[in-house]
Amino acid sequence: MPTTLPLAELGEGIGDATAVLRNNAAVAGLDATVPTCPDWTVRDLLTHQGLVHRWAAGMVHGEAERAEAEVEAEAAQAPDLLQWLDDGMVLLLNALAGAPADLDVPFFLDDAPSPRQAWARRQCHETTMHGVDAMAARLGRAPRPDELWFSPALARDGIDELLLGFAPRAKSNPKADAPTSIAVVTDDGLGRWTLSLDLDGTRASVGADDDADVRIAGTARGVYTSLWNRGRHFEVTGDATVVESFLNQLRVTW
User: Fold this and answer.
1) Does the global pTM surpass 0.85?
2) Which of 152, 157, 158, 206 could lock onto 220 through a cystine, CB 3.0 to 4.6 A?
3) Distance, CA of 253 to CA of 169 (rounded, Å)
4) Which domains, from first to last, does the chain contain?
5) Per-residue confidence of the chain (254 residues) as pLDDT tens digits?
6) What distance in Å separates the CA atoms of residue 111 and residue 107, rounded to the nearest whole number?
7) How many CB atoms are located within 10 Å of the residue 200 CB?
């Protein structure tokens, strides 16, 4: 991938997003619904994020993967679910801090940086999106880009990971009945990408094609959250149904 933030910034991003998740969850309440994840309550959201932090820490350590049901039971029995969330974050940050720069463990996205950097990056954006979800639970709607806490640079990095790492992945890989192209542009000048779709799937590249069939434009924060299906905070030039089809197919589940 052509861009990634320094490891220290990714770790800070994990910590900041966990704090946003925890604080908004505390205000919303554990039984509140999450508008951006309609099947979840806040309790489900916290359990998922704590589980993912522990899973990623285990991957960095090269440990055998724990069964989801075991970790979910641990969360259900925790006397303080918010503290349980924090404990998982600490496990993850300690694992990343203690890992060597040349860490040799598996990572699941193509075109990724080295494993330590890749795991830090993935967990930074995973936690950031779930921090957005917790804000949505408190607000009763997806937050606007101007309400978000993270930097445009972090958002730009997250767009890059999603388009170059997730979109072409066989598990997601949106398709189109006829060849079509989508230019993705941050109007604050932080990044440009092109998506080429056909019956074989999606190919992504850096740099926007000015002759693309459809153009998405917005702030880095707005494009980032929109591509992750946390509201629609961009403008579309061209056939908007092409964009909606792409996003409906790019539903990342772990």
Assistant:
1) yes
2) 152
3) 12
4) 7-143 (1.20.120), 156-249 (3.30.1050.10)
5) 456 899 999 999 999 999 999 999 999 999 999 999 999 999 999 999 999 999 999 999 999 999 999 999 999 999 999 999 999 999 999 999 999 999 999 999 978 899 999 999 999 999 999 999 999 999 999 999 999 999 999 999 999 999 999 999 888 889 999 999 999 999 887 899 999 999 999 999 999 788 999 999 999 999 999 999 999 999 999 999 999 999 999 987 65
6) 10
7) 11
The closest alpha carbon to 166, from 127, 199, 195, belongs to 195
Which bin fits 221, alpha (ψ -120 to 50), beta or left (φ > 0)?
alpha
**Could you tell me the two tokens for 142?**
């997806």
Residues 216, 186: Cα–Cα separation, whole Å: 8
Token look-up 């090269």 returns 62
- Tokens 């542009």: give the residue: 185
